[in-house]
Amino acid sequence: MHVYDINAFIRALARASRKWIYISSYRSWHPRLEHHVYQWMPELTCYNNDISPSEARRVLEAVGCDPIEVFPVFVVMLPTTSHLKR
Fold first, then answer.
1. CB < 8 Å & 24+ apart, contacts of 18-26
2. Which residue, among 10, 36, 28, has the nearest Cα to 77 in the 3D structure?
3. What confidence tens digit (pLDDT) does each residue in 8-35 have?
């Protein structure tokens, strides 16, 4: 997530939602993180954050979301053939 406050973003999503919230983090799955890790990337002028599943769950519980499912989604990157000459 490229936001400066992940928990505020999650709370805003919950407030704007009528039923379901789907959040995905493309950077990877960090099940052992107790708290989010924020990293400002000045060359990109954005944040590259690592999301803590347990902290995200706590925020969702605090705003009354139920049920809550937090799980990894793995995307398989298939090799390309763009490097082959024709």
1. 21/60, 21/65, 23/56, 24/73, 25/1, 25/49, 25/50, 25/51
2. 28
3. 999 999 999 988 888 887 777 888 999 9
In one letter, which amino acid is 61? Answer: E
**Run of H or E residues at 46:** strand 46-47
At which residue do the structure tokens 């049920």 appear?
67
Contacts of 58 (CB under 8 A, 6+ apart): none
DSSP conformational letter for 50: B
Task: Report how far apart the first and last C-alpha atoms of the chain are (Å, whole number).
Answer: 39
